[in-house]
User: Fold ATP-dependent DNA helicase PIF1 from Agaricus bisporus var. burnettii.
Amino acid sequence: MSRSQSGLGKLQRDWSNATDSSASSSADLIEWEPTQRTKKPEPSKDDKMQTANKRLLLIKQALASMNADAPASSSAANPLSKSAIADPNRPASKRPILQSDDGAPAKKRRELPPSWRDDGLSNSAFKGRDWSTSTNGTQKSSGTLPTPSSLASSTSTKPSQVAPIFLSQEQTHILKLVKDGCSVFYTGSAGAGKSVLLREIINAMRVKYSRSPEAVAITASTGIAACNIGGVTIHSFAGIGIGDGDVKQLMTKIRKNKKAAMRWAKVKVLIIDEVSMLDGDLFDKLAEIGCIIKKQTEPFGGIQLVVTGDFFQLPPVTKYGAAPVKFAFEAEHWTAAVQKTFNLTKVFRQKDQEFVNMLNEMRFGRLSQKSIAKFKSLSRNVVYEDGLGPTELFPRREDVERSNALRMQRLLNEEITYPAVDGGNSDPMTRDKMLANFMAPKELRLRVEAQVMLIKNIDETLVNGTMGRVIAFMHPTNLAESSSDIANGVGITGAIPKKSNVDTTKPWPQVEFSLANGKKRNMLVSPETWKIELQSGEVQASRIQFPLILAWAMSIHKSQGQTLERVKVDLNRIFEKGQAYVALSRATSLDGLQVLNFDPRKVNAHERVAVWSRTLETIAERS
Assistant:
């Protein structure tokens, strides 16, 4: 009989104590069958439920103990002290769990689902929050910022978030057309929600083409407008420089620029904001370039267009002595490229119907005697209870810089300068041109009592255009160490900084913001990032700076698209058609508007724009 070599099927056993070979060879072969593993009985359904209920009870007790104010030594207030996890005699496991300060594993911290956001447990609970008194009237005595768990139990106020967007019937109709692939142009008076709708369109197109992000090109006619919507200038996207030369010359430029040629080849939706400042001849050139690259006969090579802007506002910039301005709607290819044109009629910025009517008359350059008398009456000096003055709008940048500098010199406090941190992949000259259009300044100079404006949305009350006053400077690391600051309601506009990421040589500005509802918020302002980014993800220009500008004065050009609670305008300085309308329509109410040297002759509109605007369709006419 052959011997098994595995030792599993047969077992060779030697019962003797002999050491010689004969003894071992005489050993018997014993047949052996492996023992069968017996299955443990499955727990019953009742046993499973009982175990689950016990676990649920432990979790509830643990959460209750976190919210309780009883001392940790109390076993009643701290049921985890009796659990196996808290047992000091519990033998160490093979994988010891390193606990962080908040009790979660240091390296594998559990991510909470989005649905827990409203419990104050997400990171958004820290963004833009006021660290003020709790709902029961007692102040926090801790010298550190509250942890997420204590934050949830100490206040019932939900984290401040940007308010949800609700579109009007007009806006919803246009959004649906865009989603369906229609090329549209829409306009509307100042405050009609053009920018809000554009952001929703951009989001919808990004979702639609989520698998090919380069299919959606987000552009604008100016650098400021491009920065506001997170896009690039139409010139930068197209790779045409300043757009001089004929189509053949521009095509030569594009073919030499492989990235630009690839952008044209991949794009399916082209969004152009502030098309009112885009020259009509350039619009035609772009339409023909699209035909050539896409090898299609239709304008722009069949690319879906979404264009918006108000032709009653600032016109295209022309060189001195050049031919008269040509608007985009006067371009040869406009009618074929744009399938639908709409005029938004519902105004959101101004609630006073009298003011809305006055602005509409001004928009068309045809003021009634009643409106003229009302505008002249706005020359009175407006005094605000919180001590903040209006923002004066100037047509020239030099006047803005001079006005802000004079007001700063009157403040006898120490001045702190914050240089911006710039970056980007463009060549230095191109990048500098882009950065010059950013709202965030290259160098921000601040003093205590300086009047400032927020230039980025933080939450539903701290929005772009909110006015405030610098009241102090503070190192961000000190915010967590000063109990008095927490008690006084000092919040921080960004995430709580790590010490390694903070420039400890300079404190950050602490600003008391005046809100639209009459209340105030005291916030430590943290740096933010602005960038111009191609649809491929390439960042052409970026800037890290505090989201503040001096707000005693601002240029009319930079104010375009802004909503301001307090505005002062001297019409003696107005020299361009549309400037008066842009400046005065920034205001939200007549009470917050001061107009000096009002002259109806300064209020005029391009007649060609007025005639063309009557051809626009409104959604109300369709219903």
Summary: DSSP finds 21 helices and 23 strands in the chain. Residues 45-67 form the longest helix (23 residues). Residues 1-30, 69-160, 481-488, 496-502 have pLDDT under 50 and may be disordered.
